[in-house]
Amino acid sequence: MDFYGIIRSSQQELLYGAKLTLYYSVATIIFATAVGLFFALCKLSSRQFLRKAGEGYVHIFRGLPLIVEIFYVYFALPMILPLHRWFDPYFTPVAGIIALTLNEGAYITEIIRAGILSIPRGQTEAALSIGMNKAQTMRYIILPQAFKRMIPPLVNQFIQTIKDTSLLSVISINELTRQGQIIISTTFASLQIWTAVAIVYLAIILSLTALSGYLERKFQIAKR
């Protein structure tokens, strides 16, 4: 079979893998953003134990290789918590999402914290002076402004998340990289399949990069 023939015959499997890659990426991004916001607020809290909790979380999950975190959640954590019983029969995908969420959330924590700190303190003082409490100030004044500044680093982190899903292949999750491995095990067409896998990843990532540029331009226009 020729170069393109092998790719055409494998396109359904590759598209299925790409769909799972996007599924895991979107789920991770949603949960990691929530985790990142929580720990960013912890790190900015006036309470020392919350600050220490936020700092500890970031140091641990940024300091460990992602593949170690995946193995820990998949193999070690079930020895402490009955995750198999809680999430049966979906333990494997849930474990993958948990590991990615904890890792990506640590990076998003710092992105959100930096975005919040980039807003002049006068904005907070003005909001408090008109009777808003700290939670209202953060929700209605600080976060909307900080979000515009966080778009480029957040999109970069989301792109990294898509790349990181490839490591889920080590626990046999059939995302794009794993699908490529499965196809190659039967066709032995490494060149053709890995080329196709690379093209699919590039298409997804370049689309996100274009979206990032569009959002930046839109918010800049709105700002003016």
Tell me what the structure shows.
It is a single chain. With 224 residues, the protein is mainly alpha-helical. The protein has a single domain (3-223), classed as Orthogonal Bundle (MetI-like fold). Helix content is 83%, strand content 0%. The protein is built from 10 helices and no strands. It has helices spanning 3-9, 11-43, 48-63, 66-76, 83-87, 91-117, 121-129, 134-164, 176-187, 190-223. The longest helix has 34 residues, at 190-223. It is flat. The termini are far apart. The mean pLDDT is 91.
Brief sketch in words of this structure:
The chain is an all-alpha fold. The protein is 83% helix and 0% strand.
Q: Provide the domain count.
A: 1
CATH architecture heading? Orthogonal Bundle
Give the helix/strand class.
Answer: mainly alpha
Name of the level-1 CATH class: Mainly Alpha
The helix content is: over 70%
